[in-house]
Design brief:
The protein has nine helices and four strands; from the N terminus they run αβααβααβααβαα. By secondary structure, the protein is mainly alpha-helical. The chain folds into two domains: 81 residues, Orthogonal Bundle (Recoverin, domain 1); 82 residues, Orthogonal Bundle (Recoverin, domain 1), CATH 1.10.238. The protein has a two-stranded antiparallel ribbon. A two-stranded antiparallel ribbon has the order 3-4. Helix 5 packs across helix 6 and helix 5 runs antiparallel to helix 8. The protein is globular and about 50 Å long. 22% of the residues are buried. About 10% of the residues have low confidence. GO terms for molecular function: calcium ion binding.
Amino acid sequence: MATENRLTVTAEIQRRCTELVLGSEKFNVKLLPLFLESLGCCLSKSEVEEIIASVPKKKFTGNTLPCVTLSKVISRLIKRRMYEPPSYDEVVEVVSKLDVANTGYLDGKEFVAFIAATMPAFTPGELEEIRSTVADEDNRVSLVCLKNQMQTPPSAFSIYRYMEELMVNGLDVEDPEEDELSEDSEDVKFGQHGDEDGGDEEPEIGV
């Protein structure tokens, strides 16, 4: 099992998970969007709900999950580079294809196309929320704003950057038990539900 004194992706996620809930071993899933954002992830509400739905119901106590279980689930997704924000080069590439006049700005329709190309899981409501934070008074979105909004600042923590640093320093990003998933090997699998009888209530996600 990952522990705080081992330099692994899972251990770092678990350390930060426990820190967020002030040392408790239980994590309320209502905090999951906030926690994933603090890790530097970029995902929609539906993707957050999908993560919750992938955990077997028997792992829940009300709306809470053991931090160790949640950390393993998130770690496996991070190692697959899921929910990683687009890089600046990716932003530039997509914008250059949409901004054919080379103005450095995207209008409303072009911005919708940009989101569809980089973050397709976002709903129209979430898209509008993003647009309202980056659009100027002429309802245009600049490349500079997109860069600032979508990239994790160097001073901010990014679990993806942390994983890369482990690899650069020759440290293993995999936990020895993670491949076997120890006691959760048959239960915690992304995109699968542990209970098929439908007898238990769904956890209240509240995202």
